[in-house]
Amino acid sequence: MLRSFEERERAEELLFVIGEERRFLNRRAGAQALADFAIRKLGCDGQTGRAYADVLIDAMIHGASNEALLERVRADLAANLADFSCDELRAVMLGGSDPALRSGPVVTPRSPARSSLRL
To answer: Which one, out of 15, 21, 36, 38, has a CA that is 20 to 30 A from the CA of 6?
Structure first.
């Protein structure tokens, strides 16, 4: 009985970790789509564009909300005479999310090299 409980508990923890990872990847995909959109509108070259995307994704990783990212990109675009509303940018951000990640959880096998999680 105890072993069965521990196995269920580990399974629940694993599902939680997978869900959190999926939410993170979904949010990162949205930030990347937003950065790509801004890069195209600003006419940035390759290296500058990559740096801009890295800054946005780094801000997301360090806790910036989606609204803060949207406002930052809106301000950057407005400073370069490309006026977009936060709603338009939000649509770009949500459109950049992988639909498979937005749908329900799908458990896929992972290779040990990709994950440091050991249960």
So the answer is: 21
